[in-house]
Every structure is written in structure tokens, then in C-alpha cells.
Amino acid sequence: MELTKEQFIRDFKDQLHRDFIVKINESTDEERFLALAHLIKKYISTPWLERRHDLIEEDVKTAYYFSIEFLPGRMLETNLLNLGILDLVEDAFKDVDVDFSDVVNAEKDMALGNGGLGRLAAAFMDSLATIGAPGFGNGIRYKYGLFKQKIVDGYQIELPDAWLGTDGNVWETKKPHSAVEVKIYGKVYLYPNGEGNFEPFYEDPTILRAVPYDIAQIGFQNGVVNNLRLWDVEIPESEEDKYRTIEDRRKIEDITNILYPDDSSYEGKSLRLVQEYFMVSAGLQTIIKNYLKTGKDLKDIHELVAVHINDTHPALAVPEFMRILMDDHGVVWEDAWNSTVKVMSYTNHTILAEALEKWDCNLFKEILPRIYQIVNEIDSRYVEEVSGKFPGKIIENTRIIRNEKIHMANLSIIGGHSVNGVAKLHTDLLISDVLNDFYQIYPEKFNNKTNGIIVRRWSQISNPLMSAEIDKLIGKEWRSDIHQLKNLEKFITDEKVLNEFYEVKKENKKKLAAYVKETQGIELNPDAIFDVQVKRLHAYKRQLLNLLHIIKLYWDIKDNLDIDMVPRVFIFGAKAAPGYRFAKSVIKLINEVANLVNNDESLQDKLKVVFLPNYNVTLAELIIPASDVSEQISTAGKEASGTSNMKFMMNGAITLATLDGANIEIKDAVGDDNIVIFGMNTDEVYDHYEKHDYNARKLFEENPTINRVVKTFIDGTIPNSQSEGQEIYDALIRHNDEYFLLEDFESYVNAQKYINDIYQDKIRWSQMALNNIANSGRFSADDTIRLYAEEIWNIKHN
Ligand code: H2P
Predict the structure, then answer these.
(1) How far apart are CA 537 and CA 580, in angstroms?
(2) Which site among 214, 714, 768, 794 is 20 to 30 Å from 141 CA-CA?
(3) In this predicted structure, what is the pLDDT of residue 165?
(4) Average pLDDT for 724-745
(5) Ligand 1, residues 124, 454, 641: which to mutate, most atoms within 8 A of Cβ?
(6) Strand duo 358-360 + 405-407: pairing
(7) Closest Cα to atom 8 of ligand 1
(8) Is 509 noted as a catalytic residue in this protein?
(9) Is 511 a residue of the active site?
(10) Residues with beta carbon inside 6 Å of ligand 1?
């Protein structure tokens, strides 16, 4: 946008004055942040408004991305960068003597997500706007984001993340006039309406008011502003008499209170299903209402509307779309179904059975009586359509209702025209294994879309030092055309350049070390290798394998205090789901091993272990630029894609990885010499499954290193963790090590030794790092989303 520094300073002072009646030098950082955010909203209000109107008026096909998670983190810098005024504002703040980074730090993380899934959804919002595609988000405005993690005595403690504070989210705009009603519970009766359709009659439903809050999604320096719409629940005025006590009201308000309510109880399960339906119904009603403004026939809606089901949580979009078309607008089943399948598409994000949602029919029927009828009908028509054409077993495996459960992935696949995995290997596994039955029926629906990242955020915003270095070498065009990073390859033998990149990394390490010192009181040596694993804590991601290796190093040093090794700092960041006991035990053990190691002077600082609490997007922005080694060590076949792996490589960390998810594509991008691969591949893992021949106890008994390391969990070496140590020992030995840590252990240790060796050759290491940076452009989410736009949604982009 066109703006001078002087004009900006005037606008900003004005905004502060009007919002808070303060002068700039008396204002707090929070006031400054809020005023700046308000000013940004003012700058974009016209394109934001026009965008919506233009799309409706000009009959432009629009994609709607439905996701139960959106994880943008802080938005200030991204918004300024995308508006093209980040440098200008930083500069202006210097002129008025305000520390810009303090203003940035006044923003709370918007953490309406768990990990990669939600972060990807937020990235796609940015990319959609950046490629100028009409793509809007739909989600839930949770009052509490993902819990805030504290570590007390080594244990994870979960505190509510009241990110909205008392004044709400500064980026959002409440749109009460666009509220819609959503019906749940009650009974439903169908009366034939004489036109081949039914008129439903609802008896005693619970009626919810869904109120949208819109958040602008600003494209990168292109004037486009898309919309992310998050839905909040309220009690409709007409229903107020029904809710006389605070307790009654709370039951309704709870619906949008928290992300992923604990679903171990019936109430928790019900709440989750209500959340899913609430978001989907409110979103779809609005989409259809807007479509009708074009004056076109509803049976052609697929020509202007695409709806994306991000993971199975929004799968109710399929029957809800049918319901609205049929019940509210009288479209007959066949036409409604034809449109629904053309409108819907679905992304699968995991092959883990636990994450493929299934709902108990009784619970489903109770909460969503009309939707249940429709799902039933979809299911029986499906069976009718495929029977005789495919073996009974395949039909049984793919139908929606089976064993009194509703299979949401099956609903998404049958009810849509596209199913995609999120990395090549993952899609191959869906096709060959997990969804093979479906593949036989609908091969044309399957496609791959390897994940991507917002390259601007993970370089220009989070790593300004590296970005400046790149500018010096190849000019600034890479900032808007990431593929130009490839030009860095020219410098791969230039020792001066390599040294400079090494120094940049060291500066970033010092910055992280300062944070660790300040928050944890642990001193880190910036010449040590910073070896990092940050991601959701889950057994398949194998943080425990990392810990086994740390224990091995601990014993190696204790055995030989003169051991020749580059000092190593292991850094972890990970939240464990509140009900996930094993994951919490791993956190406890990492922390206790950290205590043991960090306080043992005999190790002479050769080994340090840091667990950074409350890992989130903001912390990632500090950690990733400071990392030397990127731990991507999941059991082959289990990590659908991974996206932190892409962020690390872009920041010049060397990937230490199994052949899993997008690691394989990173290897293809950088070449075998610039990545360190270890462990079993997917075929070998599957071979164990087939032959049932894995024997962890044997490895434990026959391999002295494994034996010693694993026994460390139960022999008292690690203090204060007897029961957790026993639990981990049991998981590995008594329960036969589900994720093959012990089988991959040797190979992992060797890979780590190799890392230790090459790090000593500074030039070689820096070459590898530079190669990674130069080849990271292919993981841009802008490119990924272009493929979604072209191959799945058929929407236009620039
Ligand atoms: C999940 C997968 C990742 C994938 C991401 C986005 C569910 O994220 O496990 O492999 O990259 O979706 O597609 P996560 O584990 O980080 O919660």
C-alpha cells in the first residue's frame, strides 16, 4: 500500500489518541499494539468489504475451507509484511523512540489449534489471499485456545489460555446481523410435501444462535483481503426464557468454550459433535444464503461453491449441505446429491486409526436427528449403488454406518469428489493400504497435495539476520519469489559466504540462549550443536527415541570424561494432550533427565537438555532459526507429512530423519548428502506388522547398549520419576515397543555420530545448511494452495 512514514506516524498518534486518550510517550506497549492493529484494520477495511461484494456480484467461484483448528499465532508482523509496510513501521517506531519488538510481544498468540493441522489451515488462509484466490475460512471462535503449558516439578500442568481477554481479539469484527440459527437435539418428523420431497417438523429442538466473527486475511502485497470466519454461540433472544440459571446458560456457552473437549465421557463426546455440527451448519447456511443472492439455481451451486473438509471434523458438511438444499429449499435428493459431491472435497491428515473419527449412532441420533436420517439414506444409497459391482467385503469396509458407528472419513469420501493426502508417501499409503478399498471404487478421487509453509514468515519475519544475508547475495526478489532462493547454490563453495551463514546461525543461537537463560536459568554454549525436536508430543513422533540417545550420550561421557565430542544441546518443545498419560510421562522424564544432566558438573557442559514450556508459534519463531539439527524421527509411515521439517530446512538446519512423510521430499530436494537418514523404511515397518516378528525384549536382552539405556529408567539413576520410568520401561519391553524405537536405535545413534563428525568440518556443515536453504522454496504453501485451487476446487487465482 502507498504510505509515507510521516503519514503513518500521524495516523498512529491519532489512533492512540482516539483509542486511549494518551500521547505516544505515555502509552503502554499493549496500547500501542492495539492502536496499531486498529489502524491496520482501518487501512484494509475497503478492500475487505469490496472483496465479499465483488465475489458475489461477479459470480466468482469461491472455496470455503472448514477446519476445527486455525493456528495463526501472532498476526501483527505478518499483516504488516503483507501490506508492504513492515520496514516502514519499524523505521517509524525508531523515529518516535518506541521499541517495535516490545509492541510485537504485546500480542497474544492465537492458538486455536493443536499442531501441524491447525498451523496448515492458517498458512492456507495466508496463501489463498496471496495467490489472489477467493478462499475463505470457517472455524470456531474458542474462548480458550490450546492450554497454556507450565512445567512444575517436571510435570506438565495445563492452564486455560484465555487469549480473548476481556475485550476480545483485536483482529476480529463481530457481525451480529449475519447470525444464523442452528438446531440440535429434539425430535424430527417428516411430512411428504407432494413435490417428491419431505417437510421436516422439529419437536422441541435446542436452537442456538451462531454469531460470526470475521478476521481479515491479507494477501502478500497484492491488495487482496480474504476472510476467516469464526463462529461463536449465543442464546437466541426468543429462547431466553428456557435458560433461567447460570448453569443452564453455561451449557450453551460451553459449546464454543474449548478446543477439543475431553471426549472420554459421554458429555465430552456430545459436546464435540455439537461443536462440529454448529460450525458446519452455520457456515453452510451462510454460503447458501450468499449464493442465492446471485439469483442462480441451487442445483448449479457447485459451479460457484467449493467446500473443503479439513480432516474429518467438518465431515458433517456432507449431510448438512444435503439438508439445507432439500429441507430449506426444496431441491430433490438426486440434484442435491449431485451438487454435494461436486462441492465437497476432503483432506486426510493421518493414518492413525485413533484420529479417524467414528460416532456412536445413538449419540449421533440424539443430537442430530435429521442429519442422522440423511446419513442413513446416503449410506443405503451408497450400498445400493456399489453392490454387485464390488466384493461384499469392500462394501462393508467402506460404508458409512457400520457396527452402530458412523465413520466420518467414509462419509467425507463418499460425499465428495476429492480425497488428498498431505505428502507423497502418505497419499501412497492411503491408496495402497488405509483407504485401498475406497481406491478400488473411486480411483479418480485420490490425489496428493504435499503440505507447505508460509515461507515469508519462517524467513523474513522469524529470521531477519539470515534474510539480510540472502539479500546481500542474491538481491531482494526472493522475498516475493521464493524460488529465487535457488540462486544461493552459486555460493556453495564460497567459504566467505559459508562463514557468514555460520555466524548468522550463531547469532540466532545466542538469542535463543539468552531466552533460555532468562526463562530457565540454564546456560547454553552457542558453539554447541543445537539439536531440536519441537512438535506435539506423541508416541509415534518418538521424542522418547531422542531421549534414549541422550541417555546413551550421558553414559558415554560418564564412562570417558575425556570423550571427544562437540558439545550438544538438546532442545524440546511439546505439549501432551491432557488425557494422554504416556506422553505426559515422557515429558516428566525429559525434564528429570535434563535436571540430572544439567547439574552434573563432571559432564563439563558437553551435554545440556532443555525442555521449553508452552511451545507455540511464537516460540517456534525463536527456536527454529537457532537450530542446527532438525529431529524428524517418527516411525516410518506414521507422520503424514510434517511441516516443521520444512521450516527447519529453510532456516539452514540439517534434517535428521526417517524416511517418513515429507522428509522424503526434503531428501529429494537437497540430495542424499545434505540430509541424514536413518532407521527402517515403511516397507520394513509393514513387514514387521505382517510377520508379527518384532521382538523388543530380544533386542533389549542381546544389545548391551540398549540394555543399559533402557534400564536407566528403572534403576534409580534418574531421580523423582520411578513410576513414569517404570511405565516407559513397560511400554518398551513388556508391551513390545509399538513404534520400534529399539529397532531403530543403533541406526539413530550412528546417524547422530555422523552429525557430530561433520559438524566439526565447519565448511562442510555450512554447505549442507546453505543447500537446504537454497532448496526450501519448493515447500511454499503458496504453491501447494495453487494446486488445491486448480486441481480440487477449480477456482481462479493470479
Ligand atoms: C497432522 C499430521 C502431520 C501433518 C499435519 C498437517 C495431523 O499434524 O500428523 O504429519 O503435517 O497434520 O497436514 P500434527 O501431528 O502436527 O498435529
Answers:
(1) 9
(2) 794
(3) 84
(4) 98
(5) 641
(6) antiparallel
(7) 116
(8) no
(9) no
(10) 114-117, 120, 349-350, 422, 451, 535-536, 639-643, 661
Nearest-angstrom CA–CA distance, 229 and 175: 10
635: which DSSP letter?
P
Calculate how far, in angstroms, residue 195's C-alpha sits from the geometric centre of ligand 1: 46
Catalytic residue among 51, 313, 370, 536: 536
Find the catalytic residue in 349, 456, 505, 606: 349
- Every domain of the chain and the residues it spans: 1-58+75-108, 59-74+109-451+784-793, 457-779
pLDDT for 167: 84
Superfamily name with CATH number, domain 59-74+109-451+784-793: Glycogen Phosphorylase B; (3.40.50.2000)
For the CA of 536, the closest atom of ligand 1 is: 16
Could you report the per-residue pLDDT of 628-677, keeping only the tens digit for each?
999 999 999 999 999 999 999 999 999 999 999 999 999 999 999 999 99
Measured between alpha carbons, how far is 747 from 761 in angstroms, rounded to an integer? Answer: 22
Ligand 1 atom 14: the closest Cα is on which residue?
Answer: 116
CB 756 within 8 A of CB 553: no
Burial of 673 (C-beta count, 10 Å sphere; 0-12/13-18/19+) = exposed
Give the mutation target among 67, 68, 70, 117 for probing the ligand 1 site: most ligand atoms within 8 A of CB: 117
CA of 71 to the centre of ligand 1 (A): 12
Instruction: Indicate if ipTM > 0.95.
Output: yes
* pLDDT over 90, % of the chain: 94
Chain CA centroid to CA 488, Å: 29
pLDDT band for 57, please (50, 70, 90 cuts): confident
Q: How many CA atoms lie within 13 A of 141 on its CB side?
A: 24
643 catalytic residue (yes or no): yes
What CATH number belongs to 457-779?
A: 3.40.50.2000
Mean pLDDT of the chain: 96
Task: Tell the residue nearest (CA) to atom 16 of ligand 1.
Answer: 116
Residue whose grid cell is 496499531: 36
Return the DSSP state at 219: -
Residue 58: band (very low, low, confident or very high) from pLDDT cuts 50, 70, 90? confident
**Can 457 be counted among the known catalytic residues?**
no
Q: Whose CA is nearest to atom 6 of ligand 1?
A: 117
For residue 52, pLDDT over 80 is answered with no
> Alpha helices, DSSP H only, in 368-458?
369-386, 392-398, 408-414, 424-429, 436-441
Rounded Cα distance, 394 and 396, in Å: 5
Q: Look up 405 and say whether it is catalytic.
A: no
Segments of 262-324 assigned E as strands: 305-310
Task: Give the closest residue to 275 by CA, choosing from 247, 316, 238, 242.
Answer: 316
Place of cell 536459568: 521
Predicted confidence at residue 502, as pLDDT, reads 98
Ligand 1 centroid distance, CA of 239 (Å): 40
pLDDT average, residue stretch 51-75: 91
DSSP conformation letters of 545-558? HHHHHHHHHHHHHH
Is 269 an annotated catalytic residue?
no
Helices 762-774/741-759 angle, 10° precision:
110
CA nearest ligand 1 atom 15, residue: 116
Does residue 355 register a pLDDT over 80? no
pLDDT tens digits, 396-447: 999 999 999 999 999 999 999 999 999 999 999 999 999 999 999 999 999 9
Q: What is the residue with the minimal CA distance to atom 11 of ligand 1?
A: 642
